[in-house]
Amino acid sequence: MPEHSVSTRRKIVFALLSTILFCLLLEVGFWIAYPLAGGDVAALHAYRDFVVDRKVRYYAPHPYTLYTFNPASSDVNSDGFLGPALPPREKPEGTLRIACLGGSTTASGNEASFKGSYPFFLEQELEESLGREVEVLNFGVNAWTTAETVVNYVLNVQDYSPDLVLIHHAVNDAGPRFYPDYRSDYSHYRKSWELPQKHWLDRLLTASSDLWAWARSRKHFQTIDVAYAVNRPFRAGTSQIRDGRFPEGSELGFVRNIRTIVELTRIAGGETVLVTMPCDERGAAPDEAVTLGVRENNALLRRLASEEGLLLIDLEQSMPVTDERVSRNYIDRVHFEPDGNAMKAEQIASALLAHWR
Alpha helix (H) ranges present in the chain? Predict the structure, then answer.
């Protein structure tokens, strides 16, 4: 064999071995440094579970409500809701039982703990004020619309015979209203639980390399969000918002779903309370779907309360963003830090006590 061929082969082998060694050193260095630098190792593992095993960290599919929180996660009970195990369905005599319905603004406001939610603080407020046992059951699930909530009410919530049902929905029903081809059952917006299959090479590298998983998750981590599994793709430029308004008739599903819960609660001997949603509109464009949706759906809640003779707790009015105590507790447009949710609970408790006294 010619000497130059042997030399070339040695160079290729040396380059390959050097590259492999370099990659191994990078991987080991990242494996040591990432946790020390405060990196979210749990999120990294969650991305790996998503790519390799097609598991979503916080959620689990459900045959009738699309999904719930994952009962295998901490702070989630066996029914798929944040918090401790739900009480027996038969209500103890003398106990005031309240069911809180909504999305993430009810569940917790973030994925940290149910102890930062307004229902958690509301139970404390009412028990202290009334001097009696109060059960506040948190049936909020992140990204649920009123479509999921009304199904959950029929199949689950009403079995607990709540004395009061608090509905705190506004933002999540904005999505179906600006998606094209509106249908009042939201089938134009939702789809059956579905997670994509990643390429085999991506799965292999994600399974074997923390550094690769980190690099990929920085760009694609939002695909872990449950919306990826249950929302239909949305193409830029197809929003149905025109001149700062949603299409006429797009409120049908939202209004019907809430009326259904109101009527069923009355039949069961309970009362429904509607709670508007505060929203931080600072810096928002006039046609931004979130702020527009909250504003319009809050107006619908006020109309429904008037037409149905319901108690309305208008947090949009009583917790203005101009109040510095309120504004400093916003996480984003609609979610609050625990102190902000505690303020919500104070407002709700005060309104409930004033109304029924």
Answer: 3-36, 41-53, 104-107, 118-130, 146-155, 174-178, 200-208, 210-220, 226-230, 252-267, 289-308, 315-318, 324-327, 338-356
Which amino acid type is present at position 62? Answer: H
201-218 residue pLDDT tens: 888 888 888 888 888 877
| Whether the Cβ atoms of residue 164 and residue 260 lie closer than 8 Å to each other | no
Please enumerate in sequence order all residues whose Cβ is within 8 A of that of 353, keeping only pairs 6 or more positions apart, or say none.
126, 129, 130
336 φ, ψ (degrees, to nearest 5):
-115, 155
- Does the structure show a pLDDT above 60 at 188? yes
Q: Residue 248: its pLDDT value, please? A: 93
* Cβ atoms of 178 and 302 closer than 8 Å: no
CB 182 within 8 A of CB 249: yes
Give yes or no for a contact between 119 and 111, defined as CB atoms under 8 angstroms apart: no
| Paired sense of beta strands 66-69 and 59-62, if any | antiparallel
User: What is the gyration radius of the CA atoms in the chain, in angstroms?
Assistant: 25
**Residue 223 near residue 50 (C-beta atoms within 8 A):** yes
- pTM flag (> 0.90): no
**3-state class of 313 per DSSP?**
strand
- Output the DSSP codes for 100-169: EEESHHHHTSSSS-GGGSHHHHHHHHHHHHH-S-EEEEE---TT--HHHHHHHHHHTGGGG--SEEEEE-
pLDDT in tens, 35-78: 888 888 877 887 888 788 877 778 889 999 999 998 988 789 99
Model confidence pLDDT, tens digit, residues 306-316:
999 999 999 99
Q: What is the pLDDT of residue 42?
A: 78
The number of C-alpha atoms within 13 Å of 233 and in the hemisphere containing its C-beta is: 4
Longest dimension (CA), the chain: 101
Task: Write the DSSP symbol of residue 312.
Answer: E
pLDDT for res 109: 52
Residue 344, both tokens: 């919500």
